[in-house]
Amino acid sequence: MPAGLNRALLTVAGAVIAIVLAIAISSVAITAAGASPLHAFAAFFDFGASERAQSNAIATFLNRAVPLFIAGLAVAVGFRMNLFNIGVEGQYRLAAICAAYVGSTFSAPAPIQITVIIVVAALVGGLYALIPAVMKVTRGVNEVISTIMLNYIAINLSSFLVRGPFAGQRAEGQLTTTTPELPDSAMFPNLNFVFDWFGLLPPTRGGGVWGFLLVAIALGIVIWVVLERTRFGFNVKASGLNGPAALASGVDPKKMIIAAMMLSGGIAGLIGLPEILGDKGAFNSNFTAGLGFLGIAVALLGRNKPVGIAVAALLFAFLDRAQGALQIANVPPSVITIIQGVTVLLVVVANEVTNRLALRLEERRAAQELGTNKVEVAA
Amino acid sequence: MSADTLATAKPAVELEGITKRFPGVVANHDIRITVEPGTVHAIVGENGAGKSTLMKILYGMQKPDEGTIKVNGTEVAFRTPSDAIAVGIGMVHQHFMLADNLTVLENIVLGAEPKKGGMLDTATARKRITELAESHGLRVDPDKLVEDLGVGDRQRVEILKVLYRGARILILDEPTAVLVPQEVEELFQNLRELKAEGLTVIFISHKLDEVLDIADAITVIRRGTTVASLARNEVTSARQLAELMVGSELPTPETRESTVTDRVALQVAHLTMEADGYRPVPKGTSVETYVEKLRADGKRLLLDDVSFEIHEGEILGIAGVEGNGQSELIEAIMGIRAAHGGIALGEQDISTWSTLKRRESGIGYIPEDRHRQGLLLEASLWENRVLGHQTRKPARNGIWVDRRAAKADTERIVKDYDVRTPGVDTLALALSGGNQQKLIVGREMSGAPKFLIAAHPTRGVDVGAQAAIWDHLRNARAAGLAVLLISADLDELIGLSDTIQVIYRGRLVAALDPSDITPERLGGYMTGAIAGTEET
């Protein structure tokens, strides 16, 4: 399909230009911060001196990408129909602590144990997202406002739960509070064996490469299929492209809002699981925060498409990994945030430009192929 | 005309040979209007006749391609509305442009605030507003919040806003469209006072009785050009104006066999819709008494007791000036907007059904605005084929969209309906209006509908596509389809319809036979010049 290919090529070209520009602008920022851009960029590719360090760096990179990818998917499902689920942050934290607690209360064979934990996480995330959906449908409350407010509730609620009802045994001298330890059967097997295939040393830090990566890939494929191939996905697309037309075609906007919000929240519920099931084995007060907000940037960068989101998540994770390396190279690590911010901004602009360009080209191409111009009306 | 002899009688506004083209259409062509100062000058014409474009040109929102505008004898060229305001032209829009959460005073001064030391000088503003309000008889409380005001008050605020900026020439764009009769009378009283103060009012309307009530001079626009300019005393009746508006030559319908059967396909009974939102009928009251009460309370009704039947093989045409309830009628039948009353498809009462269920049971819908309700412009043609048929064959296959079948069926539509496109993967926005519309017609005729709503099916479509769409409608009618045709194009209405009903202010006021219809009668009913009495 040449039309589609054209559009895809334009998109990629736009993204590349945006990233090159982002590097240029970031260089200015780095120079202003008193560091050398060359050192900084070298640090991004500096995966460490020893083989073990390199393996660990790769693991950190992939482990960071997985939750970002899931967060991007969660946000994108809402974005697809112009629904701004800013509440991914709260949804995943609440889901993570509930899932960690429920998982610790029983012990079953690994597949069952893990499945139950995943289902609980998705359910909690989905139900928490149901609140703003119901508010929007019944009372017209803007979901941006309600989800932001619900974030605060969720964040504080989870700090309360981890201290109170869901608190586990705190080890001697431990400062963080945590939920009870998950049984061994809940721990997702890691993917360190892949390193053996390439003759590399397996990573040792942070539980190695988390096996949840596979779940994330499967999730990405499922979401792609749902959005691109099913009737539900078609209704999501139609509602996003033209609400009144979707309504006239028989799509019930209320049902769609509820369904899309719950799906988005359900996916959001899984964001915390890679870390819990792959490394920590519990939800503690040090749990990684901010993934929900980063998910918004990742979804924007990935144009709300699973493949794009995967690329964006990898890019963000690649930049985030360099925290330590940058410090060693004497570059302030906040450079990462600058690069991420500038990239998102430029890519969003580039997307808009290439999108318009692609549409105009399409129009022209159609007119050319038909060999007719628009009918001129004589004055 | 020499300037020195006629210093006092220079026309307030003089438009000479105004022409405005848009891609593919000519909106205004050689418009000539002379507005004398200190008069109320009405500009009448059907919707789509070019009134709005003309007013946008006069208010500097659009530039004419040809022609000159003179204000008080001086030639002007407006680039923006502020240029028009600078020479004393003010516009009162049909849809109010007020900030609800500000007071009347704040709204009036917004954008032209008197300042004292960088702060809003409320005292000066209040003084000027009170002066203006008193001298023109425009009563408003400057400290009230706009959200607490009624429609009539809001309109007065709009007028004050314009006067506050020093306007001496006021353009009122269909000011009575949103008012109830008492408020109209009040507005006219205000306008007469403005006139007595020497201000000039340009009054745009298609309500002829009101025009005759207020105007000193009347210009009629038809199909983008001025067809008549009359002083009030030259006009003898609303019918005379109606005839000028509609045109004196009506097409004669082709002689053809009637395919109307005696089987009722769609029955609409006592359909009523409130203007300020649907409220369910309270328990224990019947719909009739509830509607009766609404009417007694002076509530504005968008649809007022509309009843009709369409038989299989019949095309029922609805004539009427736009904004008299056509859109509401369609959306009520489609289940997009809630209304009181009954709708039955065949034997089945569908009035509580969802839009989806109505579509599934065989209602097709060609919407009046294809870009708003008919198409996903940034999606491919085959995806647009699926739209509205998500739950039906061939687009559906269980939970999946059957892409192959949908594409194949789109190919069929492209072929049968002569949609000119490079392929079914092309985005809908790449097609011309006519081809987009043919695709919609093809889609809505798919899946053997029992009843079709065709709202302006050939609007903005070239002549070739128009003829093709008409043929498709005729063929479908011959095959037993019932069609509700809503159109502003009288050729189309008279040429296609088996029966014509006229809608005016949400009521069906007349049922006419298209084979013996006169322009003055049709125009008279459409504009309310002939009071509504049912006839057959």
Automatic annotation (TrEMBL), chain A:
<feature type="transmembrane region" description="Helical">
    <location>
        <begin position="257"/>
        <end position="277"/>
    </location>
</feature>
<protein>
    <submittedName>
        <fullName>ABC transporter permease</fullName>
    </submittedName>
</protein>
<keyword id="KW-1003">Cell membrane</keyword>
<keyword id="KW-0812">Transmembrane</keyword>
<feature type="transmembrane region" description="Helical">
    <location>
        <begin position="335"/>
        <end position="354"/>
    </location>
</feature>
<keyword id="KW-0472">Membrane</keyword>
<dbReference type="InterPro" id="IPR001851">
    <property type="entry name" value="ABC_transp_permease"/>
</dbReference>
<feature type="transmembrane region" description="Helical">
    <location>
        <begin position="143"/>
        <end position="162"/>
    </location>
</feature>
<feature type="transmembrane region" description="Helical">
    <location>
        <begin position="58"/>
        <end position="79"/>
    </location>
</feature>
<feature type="transmembrane region" description="Helical">
    <location>
        <begin position="207"/>
        <end position="227"/>
    </location>
</feature>
<dbReference type="GO" id="GO:0005886">
    <property type="term" value="C:plasma membrane"/>
</dbReference>
<feature type="transmembrane region" description="Helical">
    <location>
        <begin position="114"/>
        <end position="131"/>
    </location>
</feature>
<keyword id="KW-1133">Transmembrane helix</keyword>
<dbReference type="Pfam" id="PF02653">
    <property type="entry name" value="BPD_transp_2"/>
</dbReference>
<dbReference type="GO" id="GO:0022857">
    <property type="term" value="F:transmembrane transporter activity"/>
</dbReference>
